[in-house]
Specification:
This protein has 352 residues and is α+β, with helices and mostly antiparallel strands. The protein has helices at residues 58-74, 87-102, 105-108, 149-152, 162-187, 267-272, 326-335, 340-345; strands at residues 42-44, 77-81, 120-124, 138-145, 204-211, 223-226, 232-236, 243-247, 250-253, 261-265, 282-284, 292-298, 304-305, 324-325. It has one domain: B-lactam Antibiotic, Isopenicillin N Synthase, Chain (Jelly Rolls, Sandwich), CATH 2.60.120.330. This is Fe2OG dioxygenase domain-containing protein.
Amino acid sequence: MELLSNAPAHHSVPDKYVFPPDNDECAALLADDYSPDVAFPVIDLHGHGGSDLPIISNGRRRQLASEIIRAGKEFGFFQVVNHGVGEGVVRRFRGAMEEFFAMPAEEKLPYCSYDRSKRFRLATGTTYDRGETSYWRDYIKFRCYPASEENARHWPSKPSNFTPSLMEYCAAVDELAQTILRLIAEGLGLDGSFFAGDLSGGDTHMSVNYYPPCPDPTVTMGLLAHCDRNLLTVLSQADVAGLQARHDGRWLLVRPIPGAFVVNFGHQMEIVTNGVLASVKHRAITNSTTTRMSVAVHPTDGCRIRPASEMVDDATNPVKYREFLFKEFMEAYDAADANSDQVLKSFKIHHD
């Protein structure tokens, strides 16, 4: 497998990464990502994440919950600052990831695979590459939390700080994710523990996306337009822009904020809330000057999904989706090549 990260620099875009001229995904890439009047919401958690959250006053909790729900309904995306995940924790883990991608090709080769049953795998492009065209990225996908012996034995031994920095990072980000899920539940009028248990238990998955500088960002894409599958995603994109999200028919850049995490909802959240909090399409573009690396944590899969009874009202918001196992949803998602609209059709209930 020839990885993009194996080359010290790219002076031209190889043919396999060049999209056809009439490809919609590459049309007007650079012209449609800027609007000075629109910015994705930034929510200040005031440094109280995870176990510290209960000491916040009831009024502040209600305010935070309300801000998250409002951001979710309007954008499906928001950023959080003062979230309790230490700057050093993030820096150490991102540093370990950068070292991994910088290793010689022969040292990375044992981890290269397109077999999605593997607990740790390194690959290039995406599972949903369009015909002969590949997306401009290398990526790692693996089960990152909890640090069970079964998961950990698949992690690489190099760099030496990979495992300790991963365990530190994942524990902190999982705590942040659980904090946000509790606030979402409260903001929806549900019990604060609604998303605990099966809905957010089990193994947490991580995607580390590596986008090297691209000689011509107008002819290729970093990652296809898609919606995430899980409840929510907590993303570190550091200080390099490249994430775009769909809003009011336009692609808008999710501009990096120092120390922030980007949070967005997935299909699982949309279905459980019966459409109240919708998943939003997003994609990654490339740039010609700087390597960009994003780290996405996706809590849970493998549970039974259905709209919460509290989110269903026969008169105003009738049930929109049937009950199913998340495994069934994953199969439909792959069969539809991540086409979000097509996927949801398989599970919608049509009212006469």
